[in-house]
Amino acid sequence: MTIGWLQIIVVLAIIILVFGTKRLRTLGSDIGKALKGFKKEIKEDNDSDRNS
């Protein structure tokens, strides 16, 4: 069983109705900042391993 476009659209609509667009926008930026910080820490960890 595959997920079609209609099911994805319905799920997204429900999420928007439950959380609201403003809360989703802040959630998206928070996730983006977390991923950016995670990538930075991984890069720093790899750089310190190479220098040792």
From TrEMBL:
Record field: transmembrane: 6-24
GO BP term, pick one: protein transport by the Tat complex
Coiled-coil intervals, chain numbering: none
Keyword list, A-Z: Cell membrane, Membrane, Protein transport, Translocation, Transmembrane, Transmembrane helix, Transport
Entry keyword annotation includes Lipid biosynthesis: no
Gene Ontology cellular-component terms listed: TAT protein transport complex
UniProt xrefs under Pfam families: TatA_B_E (PF02416)
Gene Ontology MF terms: protein transmembrane transporter activity
InterPro entries given in the database record: TatA/B/E (IPR003369), TatA/E (IPR006312)
Locations listed in the record: Cell membrane
NCBIfam families for this protein: tatAE
Function: Part of the twin-arginine translocation (Tat) system that transports large folded proteins containing a characteristic twin-arginine motif in their signal peptide across membranes. TatA could form the protein-conducting channel of the Tat system.
HAMAP family according to UniProt: TatA_E
Subunit and partners: The Tat system comprises two distinct complexes: a TatABC complex, containing multiple copies of TatA, TatB and TatC subunits, and a separate TatA complex, containing only TatA subunits. Substrates initially bind to the TatABC complex, which probably triggers association of the separate TatA complex to form the active translocon.
Protein name: Sec-independent protein translocase protein TatA
Lineage: Bacteria, Pseudomonadati, Pseudomonadota, Gammaproteobacteria, SAR86 cluster
